[in-house]
C-alpha cells in the first residue's frame, strides 16, 4: 500500500530492519485490540523559534509498543488504521493523551506556554465527530484551545466542501489552531488555503533537504521557500520548516524569515519526561 505521492505508508516486511512479517489481516485485528489494551505511546518533537531558539511547541507522534514486534513507527500502521477505520479510535486517544499532557505542562510551567500539535487523519474529519471529540477533550482536560494545534494534510482539506469545511470553521471558532502538514507535497494551493481558517503551514521536509549543499550548489528550493514564507506571512500564516537537520539549514531558514523549525538539529522525537526536563 502506497500513498498517492509515492511515499510508502507501511510495509509488510522491512528487510533492512529485519522485522517480522505480519499479514495485513493479523495487523488489522491486533490494531483494534491495541487501542483497547493501551499499547500506544506518544513521543514529542520540539518546534523551536528560529530567531530566539525558544521552545514554542511540540508535535505529538504516535508509536505502537507491539508486544511481539517491539516499537513500531507510525508509517507501519497509520495507513492501515486509516483503511480499516481504527484510526478514528486511535486518533481520539492521541488527541486526549496529547491534551492531557499539554495541560499538565501548562500547570507545571505556566510561564512557558507550549502548543501541542496533533496529527489528524483525513478519515477523522470525515467519519467521526471530530468537533464534538475536540470540544469534549478540551473540557475534560481543561486545556485552553489556543494551546492545541491540529495538523491536517492538504489532501484532507482540498476541495473540502461540506462536512470537513464546517469542521474546520467550528474548530477555528473554538480557538483551536489549524496547520497544514507536509505543505508542498500536494496541491500547494496557497490561495485556497488562505480562504480556509488555517493558522500555520508546515513546509515538507523535502524543501529543506533540497537546500544548497556540495551536491546542489544552486537549488531552487531555497528560492521557493523564501517566496512561500513571504506569501504565507502576507496571508497571516506562520510557517514551520520540517526536517531541519543541521545548523546551516537552521540559519538559512532564519534569514529567510521562517518562524519555527522542527528536526533532528533541535531534537529527535522524545518522551514527555524529556520535554518536561527542557521546560524545567
Ligand atoms: P509528520 O507529521 O510529517 O511528522 C514528522 C515526521 O518527521 C516524524 O516521523 C518525525 O520523526 C520525522 N522527523 C522529524 N525531524 C526529522 C529530521 O530532521 N529528519 C528526518 N529525516 N525526519 C524527521 P514519524 O514520527 O515516523 O511520523 C511519521 C508520520 O506519521 C507523521 O509525519 C504523521 O504523518 C504520521 N503520524 C504520526 N503520529 C500520528 C498520529 O497520531 N495520527 C496520525 N493520523 N498520523 C500520525
Ligand atoms: Mg505532522
Ligand atoms: Mg509533517
Ligand atoms: Mg513530513
Task: Please provide a written account of the structure.
The protein has 12 helices and 9 strands. It has helices spanning 24-37, 78-84, 87-108, 122-127, 130-141, 154-157, 162-174, 190-195, 205-209, 221-234, 247-256, 272-279, and strands at 40-49, 55-66, 70-72, 115-119, 148-153, 177-183, 200-203, 238-241, 260-261. It has an 8-stranded mixed β-barrel, surrounded by 5 helices. β2 and β3 (70-72) form a beta hairpin. α3 (87-108) runs parallel beside α5 (130-141). The chain starts with 23 loop residues before the first helix and ends with a helix. Residues 59, 119, 151, 181 line the site of one magnesium ion.
Mean pLDDT: 88
Lateral strand order in the biggest sheet: 1-2-4-5-6-7-8-9
User: What's the main sheet like?
Assistant: 8 strands, mixed, barrel
What portion of residues is helical? Answer: 40-55%
Cα separation of the termini: 43 Å
Q: Which ligands does the model contain, each kind named once?
A: ligand C2E, magnesium ion
Organism: Actinacidiphila polyblastidii
Protein name: EAL domain-containing protein
Domain EAL: 24-280
Short characterization:
The protein has 280 residues and is α/β, with parallel strands linked by helices.
Amino acid at each position: 500500500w502506497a500513498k498517492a505521492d509515492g511515499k510508502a505508508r507501511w510495509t509488510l516486511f522491512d528487510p533492512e530492519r529485519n522485522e517480522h512479517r505480519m499479514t495485513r489481516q493479523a495487523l488489522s485485528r491486533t490494531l483494534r485490540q491495541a487501542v483497547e489494551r493501551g499499547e500506544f505511546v506518544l513521543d514529542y518533537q520540539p518546534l523551536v523559534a528560529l530567531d530566539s531558539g525558544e521552545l514554542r511547541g511540540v508535535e505529538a507522534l504516535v508509536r505502537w509498543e507491539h508486544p511481539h514486534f517491539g516499537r513500531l513507527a507510525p508509517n507501519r500502521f497509520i495507513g492501515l488504521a486509516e483503511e480499516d477505520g481504527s484510526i478514528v479510535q486511535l486518533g481520539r486517544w492521541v488527541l486526549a493523551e496529547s491534551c492531557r499532557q499539554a495541560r499538565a505542562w501548562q500547570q507545571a510551567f505556566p510561564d512557558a506556554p507550549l502548543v501541542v500539535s496533533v496529527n489528524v487523519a483525513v478519515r477523522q474529519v470525515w467519519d467521526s465527530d471530530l468537533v464534538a471529540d475536540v470540544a469534549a477533550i478540551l473540557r475534560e482536560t481543561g486545556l485552553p484551545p489556543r494551546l492545541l494545534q491540529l495538523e491536517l494534510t492538504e489532501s484532507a482539506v482540498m476541495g473540502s466542501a461540506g462536512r470537513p469545511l464546517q469542521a474546520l470553521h467550528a474548530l477555528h471558532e473554538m480557538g483551536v489552531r489549524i496547520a497544514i502538514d507536509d505543505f508542498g507535497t500536494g496541491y500547494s494551493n496557497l490561495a485556497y488555503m488562505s480562504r480556509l481558517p488555517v493558522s500555520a503551514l508546515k513546509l515538507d521536509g523535502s524543501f529543506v533537504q533540497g537546500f544548497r549543499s556540495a551536491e546542489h550548489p544552486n537549488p531552487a528550493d531555497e528560492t521557493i521557500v523564501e517566496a512561500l514564507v513571504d506569501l504565507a506571512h502576507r496571508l497571516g500564516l506562520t510557517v514551520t520548516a520540517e526536517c531541519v537537520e543541521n545548523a546551516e539549514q537552521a540559519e538559512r531558514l532564519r534569514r529567510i524569515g521562517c518562524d519555527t523549525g522542527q528536526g533532528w538539529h533541535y531534537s529527535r522525537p522524545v518522551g514527555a519526561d524529556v520535554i518536561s526536563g527542557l521546560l524545567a
